[in-house]
Design brief:
165 residues, alpha/beta, Dihydrofolate Reductase, subunit A, 9-stranded mixed sheet, 3-stranded antiparallel sheet, 4 helices, 20% helix
Length: 165
């Protein structure tokens, strides 16, 4: 599984249930590029941040929730790490991306062997964070793409990490 996230200089990912900043170049050039045609895993709270709570098109959408009665037409609903592991085993040819939010990243990052991080070269007010992979002994930076300047005046680069262990 591959974690994909946009973080600021402090590895923050959100504030009050929303993204820190919406960068079209990241959403189209990075997120869509990697996840389109693949499977995305996210929490129920993350679904609530999608416009009209619509599932992401051209992807298999897996929603993680502890709510056993939760339903969402068109989505695969899973309730635990064990269920996600079983899904992975049953679909070995699917490329699966972990897309958030904070709680899903914290609890499921151990299932990932790669991470694609959009590193935004700015700081924002935040209350949700991603694990700082640069300070982790378990991860190594294997590639950093050239810097991009967003139309919003914020620069970012895309960093590719791989689990060492």
């Amino acid at each position: 599984m591959i974690a994909i996230a946009a973080v600021d200089r402090n590895w923050a990912i959100g504030y009050k249930g929303d993204l820190l900043i919406s960068l079209p170049e990241d959403q189209k050039g990075v997120f869509r590029k990697y996840t389109a045609g693949n499977t995305v895993v996210f929490g129920r709270k993350t679904l609530m941040t999608f416009k009209d709570e619509k599932l992401l098109p051209k992807r298999v959408n897996i929603i993680l929730t502890r709510n056993m009665s939760f339903e969402k037409e068109g989505a695969v609903i899973l309730h635990s790490e064990d269920e996600l592991r079983e899904y992975q085993k049953a679909h070995p040819d699917e490329k699966i991306f972990l897309i958030g939010g904070e709680e899903v990243y914290k609890t499921m990052i151990r299932l990932c062997d790669e991470a694609i991080i959009t590193a935004i070269k700015a700081e924002f007010q935040a209350d949700a964070y991603f694990q700082n992979l640069e300070q982790s002994d378990e991860w190594e930076l294997v590639e950093e793409e050239p810097e991009v300047m967003s139309e919003k005046g914020v620069a970012f680069t895309v960093k590719h990490f791989r689990r060492k262990i």
